[in-house]
Amino acid sequence: MGMLAGKIAVVTGAGSGLGRAVAQKFAAEGAAGLVLIDRDKAGLADTRETIAAPKSCDIHARALDVTDSAALADAARKAEAAFGGADIVVCAAGIIGPFGKIVDCPEEDWLKVFAVNVHGTFLTVKHFLPLLRKRGGGSIVNFSSTAGLVGDPLLGPYSASKGAVTLMTRSLARNHAAENIRVNCVCPGSIETPMLQSVFDDLQDDPAAKAQREREFIAFHPMGRFGKPAEVADAVLYLASPASSFVTGISLPVDGGSVA
Ligand SMILES: NC(=O)c1ccc[n+]([C@@H]2O[C@H](COP(=O)([O-])OP(=O)(O)OC[C@H]3O[C@@H](n4cnc5c(N)ncnc54)[C@H](O)[C@@H]3O)[C@@H](O)[C@H]2O)c1
């Protein structure tokens, strides 16, 4: 028996980093069914390989883009047919977008980061929230960021999109509290995943600048280190599980104190 014994969970962005860590944690905590979503089919297969799920955990992988409403609707129909509903939805799919000042951001890059981070979260909730109703309620956990709580001089478009996720989460919490559907988000600081690595690899032609950026990012965290994916997955587990049964509408920093 674990904290999620018998629960059915949907996780987007499950093909890498934090979504993968959440899927692993949920399986270890006794989830009875997992619907794993990502546009990266190979990443999903790798995640599945790494899950030491007991035979009682039924894992369905769906390779799709979260900006594709029809594909998400189809995945929700299949999940309902397989499980009759769901208890947990985790929206972790996201992209970091362009570096630099907002005013210099090409329009198509601005639209792309909002398409995935904001519209993709909206569509996932839109299509999967009805499955929570089928089970009498549940928990939605969105992925914002510390950059969704304070402005980010390097990642302005990303920060704006995550700010939208933070307030989408709070409005959803108010919309659905009476239906016993809780909606919260996590706001990770810098966590060791391929996405964080891309922030440094952006400077790989200039090793001194790359090392300097790494030092600056670490210095932003009073605990003096980057976070581990499992540390974020633990926070998501808390918000997804009955341990947080009277908690809705919060934006939980998991950031070594960076917005303290
Ligand atoms: N790693 C960090 O430091 C950090 C900090 C704060 C917030 N976050 C957020 O956490 C979430 C997970 O990030 P991560 O670090 O694991 O990144 P990651 O790049 O390792 O994983 C993101 C996953 O999302 C998938 N994805 C991206 N766009 C998609 C789309 N349109 N449709 C379907 N799948 C898509 C990717 O294929 C990938 O598997 C993101 O929302 C990110 O913004 C990460």
Automatic annotation (TrEMBL):
It comes from the Bacteria. One of its GO terms (molecular function) is oxidoreductase activity. Keywords: Oxidoreductase. The keyword Ribonucleoprotein does not apply. PANTHER family: DEHYDROGENASES, SHORT CHAIN, OXIDOREDUCTASE UCPA. Belongs to the short-chain dehydrogenases/reductases (SDR) family. This is Short-chain dehydrogenase.
